[in-house]
Amino acid sequence: MSFLLSIPAALLALVAPNSTGGSSQSVQGHYRKFEYRIPVRDGVLLYANVYVPTDKPGKHPILLERTPYHAEPYGPTTFPGGFRGSAKFRDAGYIFAFSDARGTGMSEGKLVMAFPKKHAGAPGIDESTDTFDTVDYLVKHVPDNNGKVGMWGGILPGLFRGRRWH
């Protein structure tokens, strides 16, 4: 039982704010920012901003956060004050990606936090299909990624346990 209790604590340590987040100048000085309008299977466009390290040569994994709370800051020349989580992610050269959930921020569509169970005739889209399409798009379009994507965040990543992307 103690093992199960230690898992949430370990996850919290990974995503807790870190005082070494830095200023927007430090993020801008170490990352290129890309903004994408990602087409998903029903034609809706989802917004994502992606930060690729400029001072870590080679291919790197993407750390994706999908959020209904806005993937700000928007605009190609605006940068965040820093990134949450362990400085080890930054030191290892991770690519940081933030995506607005359907119907929030700069993403199109209608936000539905809890999709009903699929039934015959249902359109076949939900947060898991949006996430799958987002991951597929990012590994095909983000420069210097190694094809591996991890997810973190609050509510939305928990909805996708057990899904695998190749």
Plain-language structure description:
This protein is of the alpha/beta class and about 170 residues long. It has a single domain, classed as Alpha/Beta hydrolase fold, catalytic domain (Rossmann fold). The protein is built from 5 helices and 5 strands. It has a 5-stranded mixed β-sheet. The protein is globular and about 45 Å long.
Helix and strand topology:
Elements: H1 2-15, H2 24-30, E1 31-39, E2 45-53, E3 60-67, H3 87-91, E4 95-100, H4 127-141, E5 145-151, H5 155-158
Number of strands: 5
Total domain count: 1
- The overall pLDDT average reads 81
- Structural class by helix and strand composition: alpha/beta
Distance between the termini: 33 Å
For the sheet with most strands, the description reads: 5 strands, mixed
CATH architecture: 3-Layer(aba) Sandwich
β content, as a range? 15-25%
Q: Radius of gyration from the CA trace?
A: 16 Å
**Secondary structure tally, helices:** 5
Element-level helix/strand string: HHEEEHEHEH
CATH T-level fold name = Rossmann fold
Q: What sort of overall outline do the alpha carbons produce when their principal axes are compared?
A: globular
Observed structural traits:
166 residues; 5 helices; five-stranded mixed beta sheet; alpha/beta; Rossmann fold; disordered C terminus; 27% helix; 5 strands
Nutshell version of this structure?
The protein is α/β, with parallel strands linked by helices and 166 residues long. The chain has helices at residues 2-15, 24-30, 87-91, 127-141, 155-158, and strands at 31-39, 45-53, 60-67, 95-100, 145-151.
